[in-house]
Automatic annotation (TrEMBL):
Origin organism lineage: Bacteria, Candidatus Berkelbacteria
Domain Glycosyltransferase 2-like: 5-168
Spans through the membrane: 240-262, 274-291, 311-332, 338-355
Family per similarity comment: Belongs to the glycosyltransferase 2 family.
Subcellular location: Membrane
GO cellular component: membrane
Any single GO BP term: glycolipid biosynthetic process
Molecular function as annotated in GO: dolichyl-phosphate beta-D-mannosyltransferase activity
Predominant localisation class: membrane
Name of the protein described by the UniProt record: Dolichol-phosphate mannosyltransferase
Pfam family, one: GtrA_DPMS_TM
Amino acid sequence: MKYLVIIPTYNEKENIRKIIPEVLAQSEEIDILVVDDSSPDKTYEIVSKISEENNRVHLLLRAKKEGLGAAYMAGFAWALKRGYDFIISMDADFSHQPKYLKNMVKAEKEIDVLDGSRYVKGGGIKGWNWKRQFNSRGANFFTHLALGLKTHDVTAGFKRYSRRFLESLDFKNFISSGYAFHVEMVMKAERRGFITQEFPIIFIDRRAGESKIEGELMKSIKVVLRLAWQREGLRQFIKFAVVGASATIVDWLAFFGLSRFLMTGFFSGQTLKQISKGLSFIISATANYITNRKWTFRSRDQHIATQALKFYLVATAGLIFNNLIFYFVTKILSWRDIWGLFFATGIVLFWNFFANKKWTFKK
């Protein structure tokens, strides 16, 4: 088996000379490709001299700095052309300890993405203050929530990729070019059914040089949100929530229109209010159904009457749940009304969405 460790560099002259021999010492099956973005400190000159003396070390010099993801994509293309079986992504600053490369070489060959993880049992981080720890775990939590990934450490950069996985990718369609590239790689692997696995590592803060992560947080959040929007379920949920909010406005407008103007000649007092509220509920539910059918779920089911009945039943059940939850929170728990409204609305929103997705508008 042929393994290639790709090390992207930008101003890493303090680390690169030290890490190369440590990487090579882990296994004779390992070669190194340093992808340098024309570092101002001329890291590439050090690598070039080493490569002249050692045929296991290679240099890919790029014209300018274009981001971590772009550097890896260039390295992957270089590796695939030269027949490597597994390609490993690794930082130059010793935060990814070379000793873990032995785990990657010995691991099962059927694994397509092997992740050196900080967030599984036995893993961890040394040298970070609580703010960096909080940011990292917060980024992982947000990414898990937005993308629904199984991998614990989705932002980790220490990974082994199989040749077959990399060959399946069209990098022209990638959204990210920076640090969120690692997230997009994991997402594509999981969504396409490739085999993924994690093993614990201790991540150590860099020994020398300056971190390149400054300014990447907001860029990564934007990328994750764009990736999340590709999930049909999330798009539908957001649309469903928007439609629900619009239906509430329709309900209110209909109620006030009926109770103040249209129904005043027929009823009065509490009877007027109750009848107006019942009619406004029917009007808003109908508008809600039509909009969700046409826009949210794009249903083509020809049994419209049956589908509409299902929608009304879900809405009625939701109304009952709403009242029961509100009663429980405000009466049993003795919490304030605002919390009753918050929990009742939130829980029923999820109920209505999933019931309609799985039953009413089931494809």
